Amino acid sequence: MCFGLAFLVYELSQSHNTLSIVKQLHALTIKYHLSFDPFYATKIIRLYALNNDLHSARIVFDRIPCRSVYLWNSIIRAYARAHQFNHALCLFSQMLRTEIEPDNFTFASVIRACSDYLDEVDLRVVHGRVIIAGLGSDSISSSALVRAYSRVRFVDEARRVFNGMPKPDLVMWNSMVSGYGSSGCWDKGLELFRRMQKMGERPDGYTMVGLLSGLWEPSLLQVGKGIHGLCLKNGFESYAHVGSALVTMYSRCGCLSSAYGAFNSQSLPDLVQWSALITGLIQSGACEEALLLFREMNLKGQKADAISIASTLAACARLAMMGPGREIHCYVIRHGFELEVMVSSALVAMYSKSGFAGLGFRVFKAMSKRNTIAYNSVISGLGSNGLASFAFDMFNEMLEEGFQPDQSTFSALLGTCCHAGFVKDGWDLLRRMEKEFNIEPSTEHYVYMVKLLGMAGEFEKAYQLIHSIPGYTDSGVWGALLSCCEVHGNSELGEVVAHRLFEIAPDKSAYRVMLSNIYASNGRWNDVKSLRDDMMEGGLRKMPGLSWT
DNA sequence: ATAGGGTTAG
């Protein structure tokens, strides 16, 4: 056996090859007439996929006439991993038309594609096929099903699959626990966790991450601390994934000191842990601190990636700080991150929020790949800087390019109308989003619409609109109307709305201030006084904006 | 076959 073949056989068993080595290996399989052998082809496809060269992987696949299950699985898994779900599913349906039967690994990949790309209905179809194939109690395809049903918010269906397993293995338990976690049922996750322990199944790091992922708010801090304790007791806190789940959990629960603590207890924090902490700081409003931390990360030699850059740019945007934003932009250009849609969308927002919509627009124009979020970003950037017609142009372009607008698109567009005072366009959009795009307007869309009408002085219409909203008790829309009354000094309607708000949200002193401003602008000083006395009784001692009376 | 950080709108 010559050197080349020995090299080939050895390297094929390694998974940490670079793309150039994979290409050499591929060439060797051709040289030794092994390129049509399904075994070698499967390996080559897997290696191309691991190195993100799906194109080459596909070429190899297409050239093999005699395809084994393994070969099909490797190409389907490659597409599913790369989030190219349409390709994955397309290949799956091709496979169903051959005499090769899909196995549990095929189903696992396809189910993964369904949960990220398709909906519950498609998932049920695939589920049916799993059962027909006799894999109903196979743990590999069933745990994929549990995960997928949880991701599309059908936890109960996930539980049914779980219950159908005579003896769930650890992966199965973990999938169900994290299914509960990601669906916001942390208490059910914990219950399942206890049952699992009672049945003698030992949890591992995955279990802990699943439990932690369900803790989203400050009231769950104690629960989180309890789970942290369990991690410490079992030595799981040294796992990188557990570490970053802890950092995230503490930030979400509003306990930044503990987030820092979890971060610092990692001997060598990795990129994900750094960005978990940075994001935690941004969400708690500590944006300057987040920027400093990003710099510290770079100084420590940890290279940033698209996700951490995009998050940090969001901090610059919130601070409306061009300085650091531009610096990061330079870094982005030097390292080629402007090709990442996520990064460029964040850049557009950063420039726009700093008041330089033109620069944002230029970044957008230079993007080679776009998506709905990128369009949302540029539309709101232009619109919120008073460039309404440009914003509408981009909306039309987005539709021509075939991108689906979403809730945020319409928020951005209605916000644009507010800035420009385009009442008619506002009505148009509100109608189109429901009729043409099947998106139900949410409270914030109505808030924009009410503001738009109220600012134009069309109080009647605004009031009617609020009454036409199903379940119109939300304080947001009334607050918007009240602030319009404040601007216009409309005390007749203002009084009605304010009293309504006092009923819905009695503790909101802001509404009392607004009402008092309305009284003041009408010279009704006695009403101003009595409102203030009311507030004093209610324990609200300070009344901002009225210290001069 | 299971796990961590995510850009837009608000």
From TrEMBL:
InterPro entries: E_motif, PPR_At4g14850-like_plant, PPR_rpt, TPR-like_helical_dom_sf. Pfam families: E_motif, PPR, PPR_2. Keywords: Repeat. PPR repeats lie at residues 68-102, 169-203, 270-304, 371-405, 406-436. Gene3D superfamilies: Tetratricopeptide repeat domain. The keyword Repeat applies. One of its GO terms (biological process) is RNA modification. GO terms for molecular function: RNA binding. NCBIfam families: PPR. This is Pentatricopeptide repeat-containing protein At1g64310.
